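Q: Could you fold this chain for me?
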Amino acid sequence: MASHKAGVNDLESYWLPFTANRAFKAAPKLFTSADGMYYRTPEGREVLDATSGLWCSNAGHNRPRIVAAIQKQAAVLDYAPQFQLAHPAAFELSNRLIDLAPQGFSHVFYCNSGSEADDTALKIALAYHRARGQGTRTRLIGRERGYHGVGFGGISVGGIVSNRKTFGMLIPGTDHIRHTHDLARQQWSRGQPAEGAEFADDLERLVALHDASTIACVMVEPVAGSTGVLVPPKGYLERLRAICDKHGILLIFDEVITGFGRLGTAFGSQYFGVTPDLITMAKGMTNATVPMGGVMAREGIFDAIAGATAPGGIELFHGYTYSGHPLACAAALATLDTYKEENLFQRCAEMAPYLESQIHALRGTRHVEDIRNLGLIGAVQLEPRAGAPGARAMEVFTRCFEQGVLIRVTGDTIAMSPPFIVERAQIDRIMETLRAVISALD
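A: Sure. Below is the predicted structure, expressed as C-alpha cells.
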C-alpha cells in the first residue's frame, strides 16, 4: 500500500497485537473509558467486562487509590534509573511482595510484563546452575499448550503452535512435556479434574532422553490460561514438584494470570499447596494500570549467584530501562492496598462457587462440548465448525460485544475471568448472554 499522511482518527497506521487487523479496521471495536465493571465505547454504550481486560484488571477499573498514587508519583519522581541506583518504593514493594509470597521466598527482580518476567526467570535458572558448578544444565522444559509470553524464551518453552510456527528454530535445547487436558476423562469437571496426575510423569521421559544433568528448569502455568483454561488434575503439580526435586531441576510457576488473587489466594502456588523455585508475575500486580512484571526467587537462589561473583561485581547481567519504574511501583503498592482494604482475594474465593454453578448450567447448550473452571476463571469449549476452527467462538465474541458483554476467545474456547468486584447479577448476565448467543449460532 502506498504511504499516506494519516489523520488523527485514521486507523491504518496502528498494527494491533494478536488481532486480525484488516477485519478489525473494517469494523472496529473501541473503548474510550472504563469504570468499575464496565468499559464504554465512543457511542457511550456500556460493555460489561467479563475478562478483567486481559486477565489483569483484577480490582476493576478506575480505582481511586491507584489513580491518585500514579498521579502523585508522576509529579514527584517520574523516573529513576535502576542500574547502580534505586528509589525507596522499589524496596518497599519488594518487601510487600515477599510478605504475600509462599514461605521461603527472598528476592524480587522487576521487569515490565509477563513476557519479560518469563524470559528473566529462564535466565535466572541458567545463571543459578552455572553459579553452582552445574553449567551443563542448559535445557529449558515447557509444556504443550503452555503460554509464557512472546519473547524468544517464552515462545520456545511455550507450546501454542500459532505463537511459534512463524519464527524459525527458536531457542535450541528446549523440549516439552505433554499438556494436562484429556477430554474423554475430564469432561465437565468442576474445579480440578480427578484424572490425569500421571501426566506429570512425562517429565521422567525427558529426563531419560536428555539426562537430568542437562536440564535447568521446567516452566508451567499452575492453570494454563491463554490456551483455553486447562485446570491441573488433582495431584499433578505435587507430582511435578517431586520429580523436579528428585533430579535437581528448578520448577518455575508462571503466575502472570494466577497471581494476585485469581484463585482466591495471593498466588496460585498457595492455593495448590505446591511451592516452586521461581514465580513470575505481572497483570494484576498493578491492576494493569502501569506495565510491570517481576520474578520472585526462593531463598538460596540469589545467594548462590552472588556467591559465585567477585566482591563488587554485577551478579546478573540482565535488566531493563524501566525495571522498578517509580510509577509502576506506586501503582503496585496502591493496588496491594486496594486488594487488602477491600478483602478482594477473599471475595474472589467467595464468588468462585457461584461462577462455577452458573457456568456449568450452560451444559447442554447447543454446540457446548466442555466446561472448565477454577477460582474466578471459567471456560466454555465449543464444537468447532467443520473446516473453520475458531470461527464459531469468534462469532460468539463479536455478538457478545454487540450485546454489551466482553469475553475472551482462544481457538474455540470462550474464557472468562471477571474482576473480583463482580456481583452475582453480573455473572448471571454474562451467562445468559452466552447462552442466548451460542444457542442462536449455526
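A (continued): Residues 50 and 418 are 4 Å apart (CA to CA).
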